[in-house]
Amino acid sequence: MNDGVPEFAVVGRVNMGKSAVIATLLEIDDNEVLRVSPTPGETTRAQAHKVVFGRKECVRFIDTPGFSRPVEAMREIRKMHGEGTPGRETLRRFVEEKGEDFGDEKRLLKPLLDGAGVLYVVDPGRPLRDDFLAEMEILRWTGRPRLALMNLREDGGGEHEEAWREKLGSAFNLVRTFDAHRAKYEQRLLLMKALLEIEERHRSRLEETISLIEMEWDERRNEAAEVVREFLAEALELRVREKIDEKDERMPTRRKQKEEDLRVRYFERLKKLEKGCFGKLLMIYRHHLLKVESGEESFRDIDLESEEVWMKWGLSRGQLTLVAAATGAMGGAAVDISTGGLTHGLGTLLGGITGAGAAWFKGGMLPDLKVDLKEGVKFSTGETKELEMGPPGNANFPWILLDGILVRYGRILERAHGRRDIEVLGAPDEEGYTKHFPQERRKLLGKWFVDCAKGARPVGKDVETKVLWAIEETMAEFGK
Ligand SMILES: Nc1nc2c(ncn2[C@@H]2O[C@H](COP(=O)(O)OP(=O)(O)OP(=O)(O)O)[C@@H](O)[C@H]2O)c(=O)[nH]1
Ligand SMILES: [Mg+2]
Prior knowledge:
Elements: E1 7-11, H1 18-25, E2 47-53, E3 56-63, H2 70-81, H3 88-97, H4 103-113, E4 117-122, H5 130-142, E5 146-151, H6 161-171, E6 174-178, H7 185-198, H8 203-237, E7 240-244, H9 246-250, H10 252-284, E8 290-291, H11 307-311, H12 317-326, H13 341-351, H14 356-362, E9 371-377, E10 385-392, H15 397-414, E11 423-424, H16 439-453, H17 461-476
Parallel strand pairs: 1-3, 1-4, 4-5, 5-6, 8-11
Antiparallel strand pairs: 2-3, 7-10, 9-10
Helix pairs in contact: 2-3, 2-5, 3-4, 7-8, 8-10, 8-17, 12-16, 13-15, 16-17
The structure holds guanosine-5'-triphosphate (GTP) and magnesium ion (MG).
């Protein structure tokens, strides 16, 4: 069965989080592929989950049903063996000769006898009882390299953690902690590296796998940065237009209505762009249970008037002035660094563009946004004119937009694939990042923002690449 691909069987008692560990490690959030459930005994047969790069299978994890009668199994094996310490031969006989009353034990031992290493998952929140000691003993008899994983829950291991640690320390080659509901990339990588430590035989294959994982992670970040750059450019270049006729011009209420419609359309389009951006990011990071948007109901309790929401994102007035001065945009009518009511409305809206924005529009209340209103004769025939609405004139707009993305990007990276609840990527009440950018990065992006908003996105590859790097660099700072 073992074709040279390093294999690890994930074993342990029912409901310890074995499946959740594999799900998080391999980024599988689909219950059809890998079932994680509060019902004990969910996994009923051994199932291999592969790590594949290109077409090459690099390492394999086998989810197992878990021990159900470890004490009885230990006794049986001892009895079959007689004097001394049982080894693989006796275990093999046990697997071949015993019936379904030891079905779970048979199924979990089989891969170990075929050469898989042991990944023993325990929940250190449980008291360490004899039946666990029996499991450890049986695993020791397999003679396979063994890593014990304490699947720490949110509240830690509690009073039993030390007892577990001590016992595991003597029965396993290595003991590590891992929180299947919260582990991020760094912790996943550490676990992979730990496997390398216990499995000497496969050292080079595992080393290769780890570098492939690292490379692929960087590639994903690069791809994600490109998605964000394109979103920012499209958002800043976004314009909506509406024809107005003579009547609209003569009657202020009609004209106002047109402007209002335009504004709604502008933000609808912006919202769609933002949604598309997150859709792509979620795909890159393989999430299906994280949603961009839910029904509007869940947004009812977000306080749209809350000043904290917008105060946390974007640059300060001083920083905006500096950026404007540094990019030579100062003095132009394009720079509006005012805060107050203007930014208030803007921040609040963008804070909740996803979903909350929609709720806002539905209520017929639009934030008081200063949107550039371009008017000009566009048609040679008749009196038709066109209103054009572009990005809000406020210089903080792109920064708030970027912070909105970054804050939620952090959420995407934090989400462990082992979880099975649905989470909505709403408008997190978190401090933004742009305020803390190094000056150089702010200058580079600031200039690019102004160009994009003017509809003059730089064509040269040079600036575009630098902008990509700046975004990528920012993204790399997450999870550190
Ligand atoms: N809070 C928290 N819950 C977890 C964690 N790991 C697993 N769980 C939950 O514990 C339950 C059991 O997880 P599974 O991964 O299905 O456990 P298992 O060991 O595969 O269980 P069986 O297949 O039934 O033997 C699920 O409801 C998980 O969501 C964790 O790290 N933190
Ligand atoms: Mg399971």
